[in-house]
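User: Please predict the structure of the protein below. I'd like the answer in structure-token form so I can feed it into my own downstream comparison script.

Assistant: Understood. Taking the following sequence of 122 residues as input:
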Amino acid sequence: MARIKGVDIPNDKQICISLTYIYGIGRPLAKKILNDAGIELTMKTADLSQDDIVKIRDEISKYQTEGELRREVNMNIKTKMEINSYEGTRHKKGLPVRGQRTNRNARTRKGRGKTVANKKKV
């Protein structure tokens, strides 16, 4: 199993798909990295040589990924919360941030439904 940016990427998948296991790398960026490194997109991760892995690491180091990116995203959210922007207040309250409805859905953000006393089931 190859280890890049502190993430174990799977051996049994194509390298283009395996790179997406790294936070901040999607399909388009993975393809761009592999093209710049001169590695075939359909190659399996297990078939890569050490030189290929080093080339991929060098290309990935040009982009912000994993810990650095997570830190920046969290800092952006904290900044919005501090300046009391609309998005920041939604983050504080644990409600959907991007304009979704909340009267029928939003269980992912709001959590389990709270039971209301003396409410009859119909």
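That's the full token string. The first helix runs from residue 15 to 18.
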